[in-house]
Amino acid sequence: MKIKFSLVTILLLSILSGCASSSNTQSSSVAKVVIAEPLPVNQQSEVAIARLTEILNRVEVSQDQKAKLFYDRGVIYDSVGLRGLASYDFQRALRLKPDLVDAYNFIGIHHTQRQEFLQAYEAFDSAIELDEKHEYAYLNRGIALYYGGRPQLALEDMRRFQLEQQNDPYRISWLYIIENEIDPVSAKDNLRVNLSSIGHNSWANNILRLFLGDISEQDFVATLTVGVKSHKELVDRLCEGYFYLGKYKLLNKSVNTSSDYFKLALSTNVYEFIEHRYAKLELDLIKANVAPMPN
């Protein structure tokens, strides 16, 4: 594990990230951040891609088996950030096996990341039509609806997703983010009730405390290394933590700071995490000056 503590300001963070923020938004300083080496590409993933490619090119398999091989390779491509290749494999898998539910879910995620919201809705709808109990299709459709400017519809999906595991702080966080878009006061009341009902004290509960204002931004950053036992665990937590710090600052209209936190989340290279997937979308929306903001 390699951890580096740095005293930085927003100006320094902006220089490090190579991007200037808009001057008409409120700025605040970050007292201390935790920086770790980005997650390297897993060599086992590279080997798995090579083996699957060899099987696809040289071995005679059934149509269903070939669809599964394309899907499996797409998942690995996605996990190392090669989303164009992943989407191509998912599409090929669906041409061979049109009822491959998880492929629709991934395709919908990729459409959301590219702000192709109508195509994303169609992909998630297809996944849910094939399997109405596919809870992550509801999560991802809810997120697509949120970013697509349809918070009321997003809320229906996110409530359903959160009810599957009511003690999950990540599910509660996304529920709050969407509720905040509709009614910030009610959203905070509901968040406090949901936090009080959690029967465990995991690190991620601090995300909810941050949104509630029960802990400061700096105190939240200080929790990022608590109990961490490996480099992988560290970068995973930094990816999550900086994304939610970015959302917290964005919801409080500190766009300069939020942008820097989203860049820090991206710098971890934890491509599989939902927080990494949507940190780039958040930055794109900020640049376009259409980021979702509280009413």
From TrEMBL:
TPR repeats lie at residues 67-100, 101-134. Gene3D superfamilies: Tetratricopeptide repeat domain. InterPro entries: Lipoprotein_NlpI, TPR-like_helical_dom_sf, TPR_rpt, Ycf3. It is found in: Cell membrane. The keyword Ubl conjugation does not apply. The lineage of its organism: Bacteria, Pseudomonadati, Pseudomonadota, Gammaproteobacteria, Alteromonadales. Keywords: Cell membrane, Lipoprotein, Membrane, Palmitate, Repeat, Signal, TPR repeat. Homodimer. May be involved in cell division. This is Lipoprotein NlpI. Residues 1-20 form the signal peptide. PANTHER family: TETRATRICOPEPTIDE REPEAT PROTEIN 6 (PTHR44858), UDP-N-ACETYLGLUCOSAMINE--PEPTIDE N-ACETYLGLUCOSAMINYLTRANSFERASE SPINDLY-RELATED (PTHR44858:SF1). It comes from Thalassotalea nanhaiensis. PROSITE patterns: PROKAR_LIPOPROTEIN, TPR.
